[in-house]
Amino acid sequence: MTESANPERVLLHYLDQESDLCDIENYVADGGYVTAKRVLEEMSPVEVIDTVKESGLRGRGGAGFPTGMKWGFVARDTGKPVYLLCNADESEPGTFKDRLLIENDPHQLIEGMILSAYAIGSESAFIYIRGEFRKGYDILCHAVEAAEARGFLGEKIFGTEHTVGIVVHLGAGAYICGEETGLIESLEGKRALPRIKPPFPAVQGLFGCPTIVNNVETLACVRHVMEKGPSWFKGIGPEKSPGPKLFCVSGHVNKPGVFELPMGISLRELIEVHAGGVANGRALKAVIPGGSSVPILRADEIDLAMDFDSVAAAGSMLGSAGVIVMDEDTDMVATLRAIAHFYHHESCGQCTPCREGTGWLETILLRLESGEGTEADIDTLYSVAGGMLGTTICALSDAAAMPVRSFLDKFRDDFLGSLAPAEG
Ligand SMILES: Cc1cc2nc3c(=O)[nH]c(=O)nc-3n(C[C@H](O)[C@H](O)[C@H](O)COP(=O)(O)O)c2cc1C
Ligand code: SF4
User: How far is CA 154 from each of CA 47, 113, 126, 163, rounded to the nearest angstrom?
Assistant: First the structure.
């Protein structure tokens, strides 16, 4: 299979640079911060929001919510500060794109945050970075200090009347800290227990103030939308799901890694061309297209455009674009048990269906994996997962249940094959 047209890399531009873009001197020499200065001098915040709306940018954190529309929900004129939070918790298994952006091009993110903060009327922004990402934390702290020293962050930035400050906050080392209201609770110094919505953060978020939470890749995209214009962004990939996209490919492939490609690239091309195909000459068995929490696809379902709407139409989700590839020798029972263990461990325990359901899923899967399961266990697994869908405060419960239902729908024979032999 041949490679489709591969436009200029923008998010992973650092790969095409000889100099280290973590150094602010190099970033500035490469044209960095010119866009932020120009926009703050020449455009109003409403014009920035309209530009991002026009670009069609959809959030890269998982749900694909239109970014400009979300910004438009910010409650204005409340007399309270408005906060911008960058979600750098990146804990979804199979997802490792935000870490690359942070560790190799932190100023791209900071510039995107300056533009986004300006658009929503926020003078105080935070980067909430996963507790285990110590290296990225140090790089970001250093980058923020360098930008402050240059007058790009702080008061009267770029010689304008505008103030934007960024605080880098090391997270609490739990998956649930990435759920936006759990993140807000954690940033307030409490346990990351997700909040019931509404009210949504745009109305009542951090410290009860209007707050926007955006993913690292989303905010990095804003820098390029404002530099190159909405038509450039909209011209890449499908009309309703446009832009450059980072795809993380892991598992049984020859060349695992992060690939910047147009949204809507075919899953087959991503695996067979960019990731070098299934390793060791084996056949493909299954693919999880968007991180461990989304429904699995069979090998015969990979002629699929990788954009939010097409993957949803195929019964799964693009999610965080964490593509996990499994070859013909993969033990589906053991794989699902490992996924179930993760969600059981990470459930915050507030909601009964999630707290109890994740435990039941893991217990039954352990029984099946050890060869002691029965056919009734498979039915119970399916029905427990069904009771966990759409009944809880946050989406972790759905994230735990959806893989179970899809593994059983698509690989039931693998589960039947694991059963204890009938007695007599
Ligand atoms: C359990 C759970 C974990 C999440 N983890 C992350 C995460 O690590 N990073 C992220 O950007 N979004 C994560 N999200 C999605 C966020 O709640 C939020 O939708 C996202 O940060 C919004 O950014 P976006 O609009 O730019 O996509 C998670 C959601 C759930 C339910
Ligand atoms: S769904 Fe699970 S993780 Fe989310 S709030 Fe409820 S118990 Fe906590």
Answer: 23, 13, 13, 6
Q: Provide the residue range defining the domain that includes 378.
A: 332-416
Q: Is the CB of 191 under 6 A from ligand 2?
A: no
200, 234, 268: which is the final residue of a domain? 234
112 occurs within a structural domain:
yes
What would the pLDDT profile of 226-255 be if each residue is shown by its tens digit?
999 999 999 999 999 999 999 999 999 999
Query: At residue 64, what are phi and psi to the nearest 5 degrees?
Result: 70, 30
What is the residue with the minimal CA distance to atom 29 of ligand 1? Answer: 179
Query: How distant, in Å, are the alpha carbons of 14, 226, 354, 397 from that of 144?
Result: 18, 21, 38, 36
Residue 62 Cα to ligand 1 midpoint, Å, equals 6
Cβ(255)–Cβ(3) under 8 Å? no
Among protein residues, the one whose CA lies closest to atom 4 of ligand 2: 394
- Assigned domain for 8 exists: no
Q: From the CA of 355, how far away is ligand 2's center (Å)?
A: 7
Helices marked H in 14-77: 24-29, 34-42, 45-55, 67-72
**pLDDT tens figures, 171-187:** 988 999 999 999 999 99
| Same domain for 351 and 229 | no
Bridge partners (DSSP) of residue 408 are none
CA of 194 to the centre of ligand 2 (A): 7
- Same domain (yes/no): 72, 160: yes
Residue 86 in contact with residue 219, Cβ under 8 Å? yes
Q: Is 401 in the pocket of ligand 2 (CB under 6 A)?
A: no
Written as six digits, the tokens of 105 are 């091009």
Give 18 Cα–ligand 2 centroid separation in angstroms. Answer: 45
> Is residue 61 in contact with ligand 1, taking CB distance under 6 Å?
yes
User: What total number of domains does the chain contain?
Assistant: 3
Of ligand 1's atoms, which has the minimum distance to the CA of residue 219? 26
Residues 195 and 48 in one domain: yes
Element (H, E) at 325: strand 322-327
Regarding the beta carbon of 394 and ligand 2, being less than 6 Å apart is answered yes
Task: For 361-382, write each residue's pLDDT tens digit.
Answer: 999 999 999 999 999 999 999 9
Q: Is 358 in the pocket of ligand 2 (CB under 6 A)?
A: no
Same domain for 109 and 213, yes or no, is yes
